[in-house]
Design a protein that fits this description.
Strand 4 and strand 5 form a beta hairpin. By secondary structure, the protein is an alpha+beta fold. It starts with a helix and ends in an 11-residue tail after the last helix. Helix 1 packs across helix 7 and helix 4 packs across helix 7.
């Protein structure tokens, strides 16, 4: 077994795992997460890299309002989250390093360099460039027996004002979402005190914030090793006659460059948990078969 093969196996084994409680794709608990990066534009059917509008809200959010114990004393959630219509209009969903083991079995994983960013974002492809999430049905359910990324499960909550360690971090939510309502049975507050439901939301938020920071560090290591390259996917029309379409604006690992790295460089990536991510990304591309070509 070669050095790179040994390191690859070690890295894949050492990839951080999500908690077992998260591995319930059919009925994930209503949860939340961190302050997000600005909304990532869906991959385009063009050769121009995807861009983001810095004035936009995070992906899926139409508005963000701070949670107030007086104003929102009666706010509640449903026992389980089974409605994902809010995620229907996207080609990508951000994912984090601690959920790679699950995400790589269902989605093609790629990297997107957003405008103004210095580190690419790790995302799962859920569409073919037409702005439609193929894992969300017409009735709003997520594809059965498929892992649901934490970025999706955290909606409609969000942690604002920075990292998990920030003393100024505050819970917020999208007030336009029907996943939150005074009529829902699981209340966030009781006598103005946090319920278990609210505590779970806050814990999920903080864990996700930490995971996002860890993911950025791992992807940064890959980027600095110069093993990422721009890529595009060509989808042939289903009728076999129409013009093929190319989806671009993302990056993937160049395995040739990865194999050409010195032993010291490979070990550095391994210590950063980046070597495992590199091979997880490469292995995940088999999941392109889970995406339907455009019309």
């Amino acid at each position: 077994m070669t050095t790179i093969q040994r390191l690859c196996l070690m890295a894949l084994v050492c990839l951080p795992m999500v908690a077992a409680a998260q591995n319930k794709p059919k009925k994930p608990a209503p949860s939340a997460a961190p302050q997000a990066a600005a909304q990532t534009a869906p991959a385009k059917t063009t050769s121009t890299p995807a861009k983001k509008d810095t004035a936009m809200l995070p992906l899926f959010y139409k508005s963000v309002e701070l949670f107030d114990s007086n104003k929102h004393a009666q706010l509640g959630v449903t026992p389980t989250q089974e409605q994902f219509s809010f995620a229907a209009a996207t080609n990508i969903v951000p994912v984090m390093i601690n959920e790679i083991t699950f995400a790589m079995t269902h989605y093609p994983l790629v990297f997107i360099m957003e405008e103004g960013a210095t580190v690419p974002a790790l995302v799962a492809l859920v569409g073919n460039g037409d702005g439609k999430n193929q894992f969300v049905s017409a009735t709003g359910s997520w594809r059965a027996q498929t892992y649901i990324p934490a970025w999706v499960r955290r909606y409609p909550f969000i942690l604002v004002n920075q990292s998990a360690e920030s003393p100024n971090a505050a819970l917020a939510f999208d007030p336009t979402s029907d996943l939150l309502s005074d009529k829902h049975p699981i209340k966030l507050l009781k006598d103005k005190q946090a319920t278990d439901a609210l505590n779970n939301v806050l814990a999920f938020q903080r864990n996700m914030a930490s995971s996002m920071e860890a993911t950025t560090a791992v992807v940064k290591a890959l980027n600095e090793a110069q093993v990422l390259e721009a890529a595009g996917l060509t989808f042939n029309a289903r009728d076999g006659k129409s013009e093929s379409k190319t989806v671009s604006g993302f990056m993937v690992v160049n395995e040739t460059k990865l194999r050409a790295l010195s032993g010291a460089a490979l070990e550095k990536l391994n210590q950063a948990n980046a070597l495992g991510l590199a091979y997880a990304q490469l292995f995940s591309m088999k999941n392109l078969q889970n995406l339907t070509p455009p019309n």
